[in-house]
Amino acid sequence: MGEKELSSIETELYDRQIRLWGIESQEKLRAANVLLIGIRGLGSEIAKDILLSGINSLIILDNGTVTKEEQLVNFLLTPDSLGKNIAKSVLAKAQALNPLVKLTADSDSIESKDEDYFKQFTIVISTKLSTDEIIKISAWCRNSNVKFISGDVFGMFGYTVSDFQDHEYYEDRVKLPKKRRHDEKIPKAEAVTVKVQARIKYPDLSTVIKRSKTGKMKKCRNIYYYLMLVLLEFRNRHKRDPFYTKRQEDLVTLKTIWADISKDYEVDSTMLTDEIFGLVFGEVVPICSIVGGIVVQEAIKAVSGKEVPINNVFLLNPLTYYGKEETIGIV
Amino acid sequence: MATSSAIPHVLSENVREAVANCNVLVVGAGGIGCEILKNLALSGFQNIEIIDLDTIDVSNLNRQFLFRKEHVAYHDSITTVEYGVNFYKNFNLVLNALDNRIARNHVNRMCLAADIPLIESGTSGYTGQVELIKKGLTQCYECQPKPPQRSFPGCTIRNTPSEPIHCIVWAKHLFNQLFGEDDPDQDVSPDTADPELAADAGKLALSEQNNSDGDVQRKSTNLWAKEIDYNPEKLFNKFFQDDIKYLLSMENLWKKRKPPNPLAWAEASSHEGDSNMIIENNSKTEDMQVWSLSKCSKVFASSISVLKAELSNKNFLVWDKDDKPGMDFVTACANIRAHIFSIEQKSRFEIKSIAGNIVPAIATTNAIVAGLAVLHAFRVLGEELEKCHTTYVRQKSSSAKTVLMTESVLIKANPNCYVCSEKPSVNVSVNVDSMTVKEFETEVLKKNLNMIAPDAMLDGKNLVVISSEEGETEINNNKKLSEIGIIDGSILKVDDFLQNYELTVYITNYVPKDITEPQFIVHGNTENLRPIEEMNGGGKQDTNTKVEVVEPQSSVDDPQEGSSVKRRKLNPAEEEDDDLIMLEDDDD
Fold first, then answer.
1. B111 belongs to the catalytic site
2. Fewest CB atoms within 10 Å of the CB: A129, A138, A312, B270?
3. Does residue A54 belong to the interface with chain B, where contact is any CB pair within 8 Å?
4. Using the beta-carbon criterion (under 8 Å), do A16 and B59 form an inter-chain contact?
5. CA of A112, closest CA in chain B: separation in Å?
6. Pairing of the two strands A323-326 and A192-201
7. How far is CA B227 from CA A185, B218, B219, B243, B470, in A?
């Protein structure tokens, strides 16, 4: 089997998606090497969708241990995995999703990886990282033109942030012929598909997710951008996410952080309500399913260079399920 | 209880309790269905039932992650009788994950009859939709008529093709004529009743033909093929040479069109210009490249010999896009005919898309839609049905920033819907002196009005004219409607006990002016029952005898068109303010 050519097994297996994004995109996926950092609720969804897309290889990196809570929300875990390394525990079920992908587990910590490690990948996808880790790794990726996307789910809320650097892409636009009078004798002009090329320059993530204390940041009209900042700050401080068993104390912390951030950014602090803060506990599986789908769709766009990608933040409204792109940061 | 903590803690107590105790039904275990089942199970739902009517195929496997290769061709069918209204009443909630309109219509009617909330979902490529359907609260699946499937006049298919799809439809009909079940609507020979033919020219051509080889022309194609033992050369010369010559004799057709060029077997199989084609024996090239004419004729012959052998121990074959010889045959025939009519030829891959009516599907959109479906389920269980606003998954474009879009209100039912309104009724205009009772049952009640087992009674006379019980009304089958008293102004009370559905049908007599007019017209009481034009439209609205492009039996990968993405303007939620108007991303 050649490295680039798709086999007949692959063209058959991926038939329905090749009919959407074309053989060229499928060949680019076929050549892509992907790193997935974090294989919890959202990570398991990302692993599923990216494996099904037909990439060349996937490394799952996570040094965590399987807990009872994790077993409940992670469909890649088996009952006998309790107490074991989580990356290794998902391997069997993950590989069964697509035997054609070279899949490995890495139980090292993210701190043990240096800049060189990230050079081998086409794209790095991360979940559950702190602000500093996201900024560090995405900067390394930037140095080697490795695409980067990060996502998280907090209860009913979720987001993604991407750095596809200087990203060139194309889309097929269908141009419909101008409408003619009903005259059968004139042959109808068929709709033509034209390839439209474009490029997006992504801002460095340090200008996107880092809390600005200068007050000079451009305001974002989407209030959930600030919810993302609050939750990342919570994670940075506590080395964990808000958890339902500590609901009362976590709510107090979240609101304290929000009071600071709303002051720094000069936004109305009543915009994030108690109702919203009450919705950020745990990784809600259907939300993981949605955000995982968005992350992988963006990863596929990054790898294939086809279709307009989200530039550069996606925010899911936990009350209405609106999901919107926001362009944040300084290019 | 360990499992109960799988229920999200952010949900209110009453919802968490309902999740643990409710009974849910998932209809369909395809791409979306698998995702929904996973989400339900991991969200702590305890009682889940599944019905599925699909065959798992290799090309579905990469989305149906609950199944493995060893499950391929495992077939689980449902008989609708077993799953009656009482079955649906066992559930608190039904989630649809279907891929075709017929099944969606059915579950819609069952849930309306059982008064159970239905969460309907669908995807097509990058787009998708989730909506709640609840009797008395929202519109139902059939409130907005869907645009009809694209169809073509018989004479375009048989006489004057101008697009690749015309040749592909013709090739599928040819398959059925040679190997399939007899269907007079799928004739492939020249159509002398073409309205374009000035009376003289057509009749002349017809009489000439009858004097010479007209016999062969008029005989059943199927019988003749058997007589000549499916000799590929003879078949080829008839369909691609003699029939084309005959078409040329209908001179009126070619006054303003480029005439076709008859092609003989000998010429095609040694067609020049093919020598510089690189013939690679590689699946990708085989599928993606347009075959040369000599390759088409080779495949024509080889696929016929395989199909002939397959037919030897069966009454007839059923065309299936995933059946190699059938697909090869259609590719070859469509391209040979396209060549004859100077129409662009297509690769096997492209022809498969068109002939099999394949809707592209991807795992990511399925995952997103399934996530939304289960979020809707939480709301239904929390008795927040008013908040279950339809949500759309949209493709990101340079002008549209919203990927997930939610309506700001529930979409109200169409008061004249012939399915969910208080007293459903329709007007049917039909020629009562020419349509038979059987045709009325099949074409109008079943195919158009989506019934499964209708009983019809002539109002005022208490006369049962159509019965779903075997042996009761067969005697009426071949009678014209007027012969049994169905005339202009008649009222029929139609009842489908399987769907618990009653419909009043008002009959108007209508005589089509010529054959370009439809055989019958079904319309609601008001104008808003007309289909709203879809963006990727149902194509041109030709009339005449409709030639269906989609075979009703090809349910495996039917378009997931049930998702009514873009079928109407949205009522965006207030919060969203900047990109609302750009819903239909029109770029010029």
1. no
2. B270
3. yes
4. yes
5. 32
6. unpaired
7. 40, 15, 11, 19, 37
Classify residue B198: in a domain, yes or no: yes
Other CB atoms within a 10 A radius of the CB of residue B435 amount to 19
Structure tokens at A293: 């789908």
Length of chain A: 331
Q: How many helices (H) and strands (E) does chain A have?
A: 11, 10
Q: Does B105 touch chain A (CB under 8 A)?
A: no
Provide the β-strand partners of residue A124: A35, A148
SS3 annotation, B80-144: CCCCCHHHHCCCCEEEECCCCHHHHHHHHHHHHHHCCCEEEEEEECCEEEEEEECCCCCCCCCCC
Residue B555 placed within a domain:
no
> What is d(CA A88, CA A90) in angstroms, rounded to the nearest whole number?
6
Say if strands A123-127 and A147-154 run parallel, antiparallel, or are unpaired.
parallel
DSSP run (H or E) holding A175: strand A166-175
Q: Are residues B89 and B198 in the same domain?
A: no
- CA–CA dist B562, B128 (Å, integer): 10
Window 329-388 of B, Cβ < 8 Å to A: 353, 358, 360-368, 370-375, 378
Does the reported pTM lie above 0.90?
A: no
ipTM confidence? 0.96
B100 falls in which pLDDT band (50, 70, 90)? confident
User: Is B360–A285 a contact, with Cβ atoms under 8 angstroms apart?
Assistant: no
Give CA–CA dist A158/A291, Å, rounded.
6
Residue A5: which of B284, B370, B402 has the nearest Cβ?
Answer: B284
Secondary structure E strands in B6-46 = 23-27
Among candidates A155, A192, A141, A193, which has minimal Cα distance to A302? A141
Nearest CB among B44, B367, B404 relative to A289 is that of B367
CA-based radius of gyration for chain B: 26
Q: Is the C-alpha dihedral spanning B554, B559, B560, B562 positive or negative?
A: negative
CA distance B147 to B124: 16
B361:A16 CB<8 A: yes
B202: enclosing H helix or E strand = helix B199-211
**Which amino acid is it at A149?**
I
Same-domain status, B323 and B453: no
B387 lies in the same domain as B452: no
Cis peptide before B313 (omega within 30 of 0): no
Residues 259-318 of chain B with CB under 8 A from chain A are: 282-284, 287-288
Identify all chain A residues contacting B257, using CB atoms and an 8 Å cutoff.
Answer: 185
Q: What is the pLDDT of residues A245-303, one digit of tens each?
A: 999 999 999 999 999 999 988 899 999 999 999 999 999 999 999 999 999 999 999 99
Residue B556 has pLDDT above 80, yes or no: no
